Amino acid sequence: MDEKTAKEARFRNSEWSPESNEKMIQKIRNFPIKHYGDDGEGKDEQRTLGDLIDATDPALISKVFLEVKLYETWHHGRTVLIGDAVHKMQPSAGQGAVNTMEDAVILANCLYDLSDGKQPVTTKRITEAFQDYREQRYPHAKFQVENSTKMSRTLSGQVRCDFFLITSYVVAAQPRGVAESFLADLISLLPFISRPGKKDSSVVSSTACPSG
């Protein structure tokens, strides 16, 4: 990296240091949360994220730069994760927010099924609901994580083989007409060279698209 880029990178890294926790906390401290607890007058108390943070061991509070990754653990006890917390995707395919909303809908459905009034809501049933949510969402999330990575390599791969290998994958998955159109556009970008031994004729030639 040049000097300017290096300075910018160091600045970005500082945004994820332990010292940045307090700055993050101050931004979200006043966000309201629903708290089901009697305030002494028979009404639910209004709490904020700040109350939750103050009740948490500071050693357990961190600001994390999430990797592009599909995690295996989605829940534990009465805690469950959705969105980037379990399946961080490259932005190339535009599926990050979409999959987060899908998570929320499926999780809400699983939790709704707990309130059938036939059985008490126990930790065991909550865990089963969380597991049902994960089983429904995991295969699709896995596909989208892999697909977004392939799309990112297609659009901005660092080596030439990224482009040609992934392009081959994309073209193979398309209808014949779309694939032919894509290849025609690709070939039009390649340089023309004279065919050896034949005067005034030109053909497309490259390491990926041999002449002839």
Q: Based on DSSP secondary structure assignment, what is the total number of beta strands?
A: 8
Low-confidence stretches: 198-212
Through-space gap between termini:
41 Å
Strand order of the largest sheet: 1-2
What integer is the average pLDDT?
A: 75
Outline the biggest β-sheet: 2 strands, antiparallel
- What's the shape? flat
Beta-strand fraction estimate: 5-15%
CATH topology of the domain at 67-142, anyone? FAD/NAD(P)-binding domain
- Binned, the helix content reads 40-55%
Give the structural class: alpha+beta
**Name of the CATH homologous superfamily of the domain at 67-142:** FAD/NAD(P)-binding domain
H and E order: HHEEHEEEEHHHHEE
Highest CATH level, the class of the domain at 67-142:
Alpha Beta
CA radius of gyration: 26 Å
In quaternary terms, these chains amount to single chain
CATH architecture classification name of the domain at 67-142:
3-Layer(bba) Sandwich
Report on the architecture of this protein:
With 212 residues, the protein is α+β, with helices and mostly antiparallel strands. Among the domains are: 16-65, no CATH class; 67-142, FAD/NAD(P)-binding domain. The chain is 49% helix and 12% strand. It contains 7 helices and 8 strands; from the N terminus they run ααββαββββααααββ. The strands form 4 sheets. A two-stranded antiparallel ribbon has the order 1-2. It has a two-stranded antiparallel ribbon with strand order 3-6. The chain has a two-stranded antiparallel sheet with strand order 4-5. α4 (96-112) packs antiparallel against α5 (123-156) and α5 (123-156) crosses α6.
